[in-house]
Amino acid sequence: MMIYLDYNATTPLCDAAREAMLPYLNRHFGNPSSVHAAGREARAAVDDARDRLAALLRVKPGEIIFNSGATESCNLGLLGLARSRSVGSLPAVASAKAGHIISNKAEHHAVVHAVEHLEDHEGFEVTWLNVSKTGIVDLDQLADSIRPETKLVSIMTANNETGVVQPMSEISRICRERGVLLHSDMVQAFGKFDIDVSLVDAASFASHKFYGPKGTGFLFLRSGLPIQPIMFGGAHENQRRPGTENVAGVAGMAAAAEWVSSDVNAERQREVELRDDFWRRIAKLFPDAQQNGDPIHRLGNTLNVSFIGVDSETMLMALDLEGVCASSGSACMVGSVRASHVLLAMGLPMESARSAIRFSLGRRTTAEEIADAADALARIAKRTKDAREYAVA
Ligand code: PLP
């Protein structure tokens, strides 16, 4: 038995995506840059995927830059926009401040480390916004931090660890009123609720978070905005991202995006009910357990729980032995014993941060799986209690 409750780490490929990909893994293997018939077939697939994604997001096809996923999208969005908007920002003259960037302490490392790179190596000054105890960005601090040299603000729409959803309309209004560009990591939001890309100037997406293939994604970039490429090579993607397109990948991504968008609200409601049922069962089994993240402004599928007194690694291993796949903080941190920077930014005590587990539900999660996962936790709770009593005796 395997119960997969780690959909924020990745999702299984949906049938629609698999079917859309197969022709480009078999017969239609051409390079979209080739001018012959085989190339034209592949080019048509890439163009079609771009058109369909653009239609879903209500943007222009030319505003979509295909690439390898969210990490690359965040890097391109941040480095590319920051560099193109700073005068004299080349590392060689980094002693002169290249400009100012604002981000949030609870971002994914794809943003945190890209911004830190700009700060440490390219002369940018950075303001890291605080988040509240429930994980919401401090809007007053955002408004107060924007200054004439601010080049870019980057705030994620939904957090991967806690599911906390930021007030993007307000954030957008604050940035627009002050004429500052806004990038948002929308990786965890797409397919989980209705997102509004028109609120931002750039946004990052990863196909494997919405039932498409891994290793493909895109950056939405408002037309007319200059961006410096972060890699060098061919003239692909309108000179903004070199490299032969992942034809099967983008075909699968577009199909997955359509599939996942078809019933977002009904599916969200279904997952909320399963998640809340799971939490009620956990709270009975572990009276000291705490839910982390805003109870209202949160993705419908995400449950972040601190099992006070049981460290995350121990709990994850116990869950794994029971066949339950969950995660502690971001998947990229698995194997590391560091407490989550997201939970620490929310001011959680170290003990709570070190005992946090993220459960994230998805399209294939059933009520039966939730009941079975709760039974597994009941066995773990009993073993933990027995072990404690043994230690005291
Ligand atoms: N941003 C968020 C919010 C994520 O959850 C992830 C993946 O965990 C990423 C960025 C990076 O995505 P990828 O590893 O597909 O590049």
What would you note in describing this structure?
- The protein has 393 residues and is α/β, with parallel strands linked by helices.
- Helices cover 42% and strands 13% of the residues.
- The protein contains 13 helices and 12 strands.
- Strands 2-8-7-6-5-3-4 form a 7-stranded mixed β-sheet, sandwiched between helices.
- α1 runs antiparallel to α8, α2 packs parallel to α8 and α3 packs parallel to α4.
- The protein is globular and about 75 Å long.
- About 1% of the residues have low confidence.
- The structure holds pyridoxal-5'-phosphate.
Describe the protein's topology.
Layout: E1 3-4, H1 15-25, H2 37-57, E2 64-67, H3 70-85, E3 99-104, H4 109-121, E4 124-129, H5 139-145, E5 150-154, H6 168-177, E6 181-185, E7 202-206, E8 217-221, H7 236-239, H8 247-261, H9 264-285, E9 290-292, E10 302-306, H10 312-321, E11 324-325, H11 341-345, H12 350-353, E12 356-360, H13 367-392
Helix pairs in contact: 1-8, 2-8, 3-4, 9-13
This protein binds pyridoxal-5'-phosphate.
Task: Give a brief outline of the structure.
The protein has 393 residues and is of the alpha/beta class. It has helices spanning 15-25, 37-57, 70-85, 109-121, 139-145, 168-177, 236-239, 247-261, 264-285, 312-321, 341-345, 350-353, 367-392, and strands at residues 3-4, 64-67, 99-104, 124-129, 150-154, 181-185, 202-206, 217-221, 290-292, 302-306, 324-325, 356-360.
